[in-house]
Every structure is written in C-alpha cells, then in structure tokens.
Design a protein that fits this description.
Layout (H helix, E strand, L loop, with lengths): L1 E5 L3 H13 L3 E5 L2 H8 L6 E5 L7 H10 L5 E6 L4 H10 L3 E4 L4 H13 L9 E4 L2 E4 L4 E4 L4 E4 L2 H12 L7 H9 L7 H17 L5 E5 L3 E5 L1
Parallel strand pairs: 1-2, 1-3, 3-4, 4-5
Antiparallel strand pairs: 6-7, 7-8, 8-9, 10-11
C-alpha cells in the first residue's frame, strides 16, 4: 500500500518515512502544500499523513480540495495544534484521524494500520493469496502451496508482486505500475521494469508455481495461472 506524507519539517518527514518503509509501505514525501496537493490529486495513495501548518497551501485547504475531487485516500492530520476547535474543523473537512505533535512513532504507525485495515476491499492482510501462491507481507516470503517451496523477495520485487496480487487477473499498464510501485515523480526507463519482472518471474518459477506474469501487447501486464 502507498502512503503520502505532507510535512514541511524534513527531519520529522524523513523519520516517519523510514518507519513506514520498515513496515513494508511504499512512501512518498512532500515538503510543502503545493507539491502535496499535486501528488494527492493523483489518487494513487491509500493514505495521506497531512500536516496542517504548511507553506504555500495549508493542510485543511488540501484536505478540502481532495475531498471535493473524490480522492479516496484515508487522511490522518498531523499538527502541533491541540485545541478542540482545530480538531473539529479537521474532522468536519473530512479527516479520518488526528495526531497531535509531539507524538510517539508507535502510536502513529498503529493509527496508520487501523485506517488501512478499515479501507473495505483494500483491507490489509498479513497473507496475500492467488492460485498456488501465498505472499507473507510481514516477512516478504513467497510460498508455493503445491510444492511447499519458499523464497524471500527483495523490497522492490515485493512491492511489484504485492501490486499484482492485489490486482490479480487484471491488465495493469506500465504507467500504473510505475506510479504505484516507484512513485509519480519517477524518471523511469521501460527496461527497468522489465528487469524487475524478469527477476520476479524467475523466483516464481524456482518455487514451482503455475502462476505467470504475462505481457499484454500495447496494454501492460497481467498475473494469471
């Protein structure tokens, strides 16, 4: 799952980013409201951690606009303000949760996990399954149920495989993959994706799975049996 952090204090943003990536989340960061609004409107994020006091555009204005644009990401407001009126204004604008600075990182991670578990069809699970494959989200371990063989999946291949397993038997374009797995600011080359897909296909084959990731001409890629 992909998370956007919009926080102008770079040290705080970088610490949150490091902790969330350790939890296997894909994380992008913006340090001002203008860039944060641009990224949020891409609608590729499952959750946005949004500071209220931001340069250029404040967090409440960002929240209001993305709700008007039907962006379906969960939003956790992050701010030094603790007054009740500010909290109520945030909830009235459409925030899902509110964390006041200073905060314990464990609390923020817990709140992120709760919000993503409550995302309905995008409900977070420790184990993803498709055909004879199971992917353990916590350990990055891919297992074939038929052969009982397992293999550890490196970070970028894990993110790629997770995205395919959330969208099994659907055609996914290269642009969608790069936006979701690498981020919307990525200056990518097609061969980069092909290399990671090749690594991933080899690992799936090594453990004896029937699952294939096939190229669909002029459209993208599809995971199928």
């Amino acid at each position: 799952m992909r998370i956007l952090i919009v926080e102008d204090e770079e040290t705080i943003a970088d610490i949150i980013t490091t902790k969330l990536r350790a939890e296997k989340y894909v994380v992008d960061t913006s340090y001002d409201g203008e860039d944060g609004l641009y990224k949020a409107n891409s609608n590729i994020y499952d959750l946005i951690i949004l500071d209220i006091m931001l340069p250029k555009i404040n967090g409440l204005e960002i929240l209001k606009e993305i709700k008007e644009n039907d962006i379906n990401a969960k939003v956790i407001l992050l701010t030094a303000k603790s007054e009740l009126d500010d909290k109520l204004k945030g909830f009235d604008t459409g925030a899902d949760d509110y964390v006041t600075k200073p905060f314990h990182m464990e609390e923020l991670i817990a709140r992120v996990n709760v919000q993503l578990r409550n995302k309905g069809k995008n409900k977070m699970k420790d184990i993803l399954e498709y055909s004879d494959l199971t992917l353990n989200i916590r350990t990055s371990t891919l297992t074939c149920k038929r052969t009982n063989e397992s293999i550890n999946i490196p970070y970028r291949e894990f993110l790629l495989l997770e995205y395919f397993m959330h969208n099994k038997e659907q055609i996914i374009s290269k642009e969608q993959i790069y936006d979701k797995v690498w981020g919307i600011d990525t200056d990518y080359e097609s061969n980069n994706l092909e290399a990671y897909l090749s690594f991933l296909r080899k690992k799936i084959k090594i453990i004896g799975s029937k699952v294939k990731i096939k190229a669909v001409r002029n459209l993208g890629y599809k995971m199928e049996e």
